Amino acid sequence: MDITQERTEEQDLPYNVFAKACPSRGTLEHVTGRWGSLTLGALYDGSSRFNELRRRVDGVSEKMLSQTLHALERDGLVHREAQPTNPPRVDYRLTPLGREVAERVLTLVHFVEGHMDDVLTARESYDETRGAR
Strand (E) positions, 1-133? Predict the structure, then answer.
């Protein structure tokens, strides 16, 4: 069964990401954006504190990680647990739904990583035929 057949069978669903006003678009953006997908992947192995996540997701700013975590928490994909200690301790972990999403994201991540030689070859060929940009 191909993807178009799957989509046809799922058209009974009340949400359609291809419709402009569908609320699923926002969640898809949170999950597939650079920082969202990397944050979900980083949390797949277990809970982390904010600075642990920031080190794991190399290149993310404190502000972007904070915004990403808030969005993922709001979508029900990440759980934030604040400990009443001094200084406060905050841990982030995937919810069951977040874990399911992270598994799918990591499948895509591993696919891309495994095919980077092909991608780099295609880029080189493209640049040679059209001039490097």
Answer: 48-49, 78-83, 89-94
